[in-house]
């Protein structure tokens, strides 16, 4: 497994958030549920976000503890290991409530420190 910089990992997270936004743009919760491809794509990208967060070095996560790193990482673990028990209402809440906040936090972090390793 190659080691990616924190900067690259944060950008991976932002790219996945953007993909989720594109896949769900203009959708209601019912539209989302009815679109298996969108559901699968969103779940995959939530997993990417969690995996990237997990690879961000712990000292960096500790330094930027305003981001709920462990919650993000746990979401990924739940999706990977309990894929038959996915609660799509929780996924929708992640899409509509948590990802916009995370996107803003990551953008601010990247803009504030151009020297991320």
Structural summary, described in words:
The protein is mainly alpha-helical. Helix content is 76%, strand content 0%. Helix 1 runs antiparallel to helix 3 and helix 3 (36-55) crosses helix 5. The two termini are 17 Å apart. The model has no long low-confidence stretch (mean pLDDT 91).
Break the fold down into its secondary structure elements and pairings.
Blueprint: H1 6-24, H2 29-34, H3 36-55, H4 58-63, H5 69-81, H6 88-112
Helix pairs in contact: 1-3, 1-6, 3-5
Rg value = 14 Å
SSE topology string: HHHHHH
**What are the low-pLDDT stretches, counting only 5+ consecutive residues below 50?**
none
Strand content: under 5%
Tally of structural domains:
1
Number of H/I helices: 6
Q: What structural class should be given to the helix and strand makeup?
A: mainly alpha
- Kindly state the number of beta strands: 0
The largest pleated sheet is described as: none
In round numbers, the mean pLDDT is 91
- What coarse outline follows from CA principal-axis ratios? globular
Give the termini separation.
17 Å
Query: How much helix is in the residues?
Result: over 70%
Provide keyphrases for this structure.
mainly alpha; nuclease; toxin-antitoxin system; single chain
Briefly characterize the structure:
It contains 6 helices and no strands. The protein has 117 residues and is mostly helical. The protein has one domain (6-112).
